[in-house]
Structure formats: structure tokens, C-alpha cells
């Protein structure tokens, strides 16, 4: 950021030339120094979850330059606030003040920037994940494949979900790339992500999974007909069932308790490791995970699939399971998508939230030393049983740090 006194000592664009000629030079310099500090102080406390909040505002414009344009997003703050988002969109200042941001779609894109990022992040995740399951399952027995028995195996599915997660995080960087309602919920409770964002993020994540599974179905519809028969759609444990391409179904021998345990364990591991990777005070990783975080998530998801994926399909994500399940119901798989496995459909929803919450709690209890409900009297139980006190405490903390983005 250039200070107001960074121009030449004289000339038509010099701020110093506006000072009285008889004013001592040291007072002139002090005046500009204070102005510079005043401007910098506004930038020393950026909003923590706004990836571009560190970008300085323009402080001066030379007379021979094009006049500065007001940031388009600053005029959309009301709409963004009503949606529960941060008033300022995470966007480069140069882009924000460009002329094309006055177009209708540009304004809509700025208003919905984070939800669109979450939508397409989950879209990519499910596109690769469901696509890998479809290719492996629908090509079984294909003698034209290398090896003579289909295009892929179980590890191909682990690769697909791992790659989808990694690429989805890259796509959704401007929103925080949560890509999972349970992870979003855990961050709201344990890391002070504003609660007002949860409904919008949840909706975007759900719709992203729903839309992506529809694309996979449209792409593989002829292959599904080839395996099941034209217009036939069945659900596991039917012999040729293809509903498992889109959402998870348990092995038929599992009890209800085992179904819950499998999903709870995988969700706990997922959240525990994510908090470890994002812990800036953890010496085992780069600060906050850095650019290695998406790659680390690839290995995490691959490992969960390789080690815990067989029994229930390791859904660990409501957006990736419930959205595609609803899509499969709509395209003709019938009510069995809900009743299969003893009405198993609710377990990936409930256990993903329970497991991620417990994983976050366990990490903060055992390792994390930063601000957390666990690092308060009674280990945060008061926030559960007295949420009104939790709201008051958060508002008080927000006022102390003068950070409107962390308001409840």
C-alpha cells in the first residue's frame, strides 16, 4: 500500500504541495506519517474468513490517473447480509471495481459467491466419487478392459473420492471449502464460524451433491440399462442393483448398532484429522495446512475408503449421500432407497454429525490449545445447555475484537 506521501516532493500530483509553505518539513512528514498509520490500522485486522480481506483499499489517486471506481460488492452488502454471508464478498479489489461487475449476473455472482463455491465444490466431489463407483460397478466382466475384467477395482473408488475431495477443495477455496454439512456445523461450534452461514452453506452443499449425481446418472444411463435391463432400477441387495452408485447401502449382515458404529468412527477420524491439519499451533503440519491441505485430504479420504469403506460405504457426508439418494428416488429407484437396510438412510445423516462433532471435541480436548468451547469452564457444556450465554459471550468477544464477521 502506498502512503499519501509516496509521490514526488513537488508537482501537480504531490500532496506535500498543498501544505502551507512556511510549515516546518518535520510537521509535514509527521502529518503524512499519521495519515499512513491511520490507513494501515484499518488493514491490520482483516476479517479472518475473508480470503481477500488483506487487500488494501486505494488511498490516493494521481490526477492523471483514471478515477477510482467504487467496489461493486460494497453496494450489495445488504443482500449478502440477509443471506447470512459476510457483507464483503471475497474478491480481488481490482476485479471488484471492474466495469463488468455492474452486469446483472456479475452482481448475482458476488452476492452468492460463497454458496456457489460450496455448490461446485461438492459438485466436483460427487462427480468424481459417484463416477468412479459407476465405472467400476458397471464395467464388471468387460473382457475388453486391461486385465479382462472391467475398468477398475475397489481401490479405483477410493482414488475417485480422494481426488474429488481434493479438487473440490481447490474449487471452493473462497468459501472455506467445507463441502460437508457436518464439518460446517463443527466449525460453527468449535471454531466460531458464524452460525448464520450454516443454512446457506447446507443448502448449497446439498444441491451440489444432488446435481452432480444427476449428471453421473445421465452419463451412465445406457450402461445402467445394459446391466439391469431397460427401465429396470433396483436397490441393494438385489443381484444387479445399481442404486449404490449414487448413495451408500450397508452390508446385509450388519446390525443397526454396527451400521452406526462404522459411520461414527469414520466421521470422527475425518474431523479429528481435519482439525489437526488446520491447527496453526500444531508443529506437525505447516501453518493451517497451507497449500498441502487439499493433498492431505486426498490421502485422508483415500485411507478411509481403503480401511473402513466396505461395511457401509463411508458416506461421512450428508451432502454426498442424501442429495444423491433423493436424486435416485426421483429417477426411478423407488421407495426402497429409503427402506433398504432397515431404513438405513438416516444413519449417514445422524452419524456424520455425531462423529464430526465428537472428533472435533476429542481433538480440542486432547491437543488444541487455542480458543475453543472445550477450553472454557466445564469444557463447553454450558454452551450446550445454556446457548443464550454462549451467544452473549460470542457477541462480547466480537465487540472486543471489532470484527463484525464473527457476529452470531
From TrEMBL:
According to the entry, what is the taxonomic lineage of the organism? Eukaryota, Fungi, Dikarya, Ascomycota, Pezizomycotina
- This protein's name: Aquaporin
Q: Which UniProt keywords are present, listed alphabetically?
A: Membrane, Repeat, Transmembrane, Transmembrane helix, Transport
Ranges for region Disordered: 1-98
* Feature: compositional bias, Basic and acidic residues: 44-55
Q: How does it sit in the membrane?
A: Multi-pass membrane protein
Kindly state which reaction or reactions the protein catalyses. H2O(in) = H2O(out); glycerol(in) = glycerol(out)
Note whether Hydrolase occurs among the keywords: no
Which GO cellular component terms, listed alphabetically, does the Swiss-Prot or TrEMBL entry include?
plasma membrane
Task: Write out the annotated subcellular location.
Answer: Membrane
GO molecular function terms noted in the UniProt entry: glycerol channel activity; water channel activity
Enumerate the CDD domains for this protein. Answer: MIP
Q: Which family does it belong to?
A: Belongs to the MIP/aquaporin (TC 1.A.8) family.
TM regions (residue ranges)? 200-220, 261-277, 289-311, 343-363
Which portions of the chain have biased composition (kind: Low complexity)?
Answer: 1-17
- Coiled-coil region list: none
Amino acid at each position: 500500500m502506498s502512503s499519501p506521501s509516496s509521490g514526488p516532493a513537488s508537482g501537480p500530483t504531490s500532496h506535500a504541495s498543498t501544505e502551507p509553505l512556511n510549515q516546518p518539513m518535520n510537521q509535514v512528514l509527521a502529518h503524512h506519517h499519521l495519515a499512513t498509520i491511520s490507513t494501515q490500522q484499518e488493514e491490520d485486522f482483516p476479517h479472518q474468513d475473508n480470503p481477500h480481506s488483506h487487500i488494501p483499499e486505494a488511498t490516493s489517486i494521481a490526477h492523471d490517473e483514471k478515477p477510482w471506481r467504487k467496489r461493486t460488492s460494497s453496494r450489495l452488502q445488504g443482500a449478502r447480509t440477509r443471506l447470512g454471508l459476510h457483507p464483503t464478498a471475497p474478491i480481488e479489489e481490482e476485479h471488484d471495481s471492474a466495469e463488468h461487475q455492474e452486469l446483472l449476473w456479475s452482481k448475482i455472482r458476488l452476492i452468492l459467491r460463497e454458496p456457489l463455491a460450496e455448490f461446485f465444490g461438492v459438485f466436483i466431489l460427487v462427480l468424481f466419487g459417484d463416477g468412479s463407483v459407476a465405472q467400476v460397478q458397471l464395467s464388471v466382466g468387460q473382457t475388453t478392459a486391461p486385465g479382462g475384467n472391467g475398468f477398475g477395482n475397489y481401490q479405483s473408488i477410493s482414488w475417485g473420492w480422494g481426488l474429488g475431495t481434493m479438487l473440490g477443495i481447490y474449487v471452493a477455496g473462497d468459501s472455506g471449502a467445507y463441502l460437508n454439512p457436518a464439518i460446517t456445523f463443527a466449525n460453527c461450534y468449535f471454531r466460531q464460524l458464524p452460525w448464520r452461514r450454516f443454512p446457506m452453506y447446507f443448502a448449497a452443499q446439498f444441491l451440489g451433491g444432488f446435481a452432480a449425481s444427476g449428471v453421473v446418472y445421465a452419463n451412465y444411463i445406457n450402461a445402467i440399462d445394459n446391466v439391469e435391463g431397460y427401465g429396470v432400477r433396483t436397490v441393494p441387495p438385489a443381484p444387479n442393483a445399481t442404486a449404490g452408485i449414487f448413495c451408500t447401502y450397508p452390508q446385509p449382515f450388519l446390525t443397526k448398532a454396527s451400521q452406526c458404529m462404522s459411520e461414527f468412527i469414520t466421521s470422527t477420524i475425518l474431523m479429528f484429522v481435519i482439525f489437526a491439519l488446520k491447527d496453526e499451533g500444531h508443529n506437525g503440519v505447516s501453518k493451517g495446512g497451507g497449500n498441502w491441505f487439499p493433498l492431505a485430504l486426498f490421502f485422508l479420504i483415500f485411507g478411509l475408503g481403503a480401511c473402513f469403506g466396505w461395511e457401509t460405504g463411508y458416506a461421512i457426508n450428508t451432502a454426498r449421500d442424501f442429495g444423491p439418494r433423493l436424486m435416485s428416488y426421483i429417477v426411478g429407484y423407488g421407495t426402497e432407497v429409503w427402506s433398504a437396510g432397515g431404513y438405513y438412510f438416516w444413519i449417514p445423516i445422524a452419524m456424520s454429525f455425531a462423529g464430526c462433532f465428537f472428533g472435533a471435541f476429542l481433538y480440542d480436548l486432547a491437543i488444541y490449545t487455542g480458543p475453543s468451547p472445550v477450553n472454557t469452564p466445564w469444557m463447553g457444556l454450558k454452551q450446550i445447555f445454556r446457548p443464550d450465554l454462549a451467544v452473549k459471550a460470542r457477541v462480547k468477544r466480537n465487540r472486543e475484537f471489532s470484527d463484525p464477521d464473527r457476529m452470531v
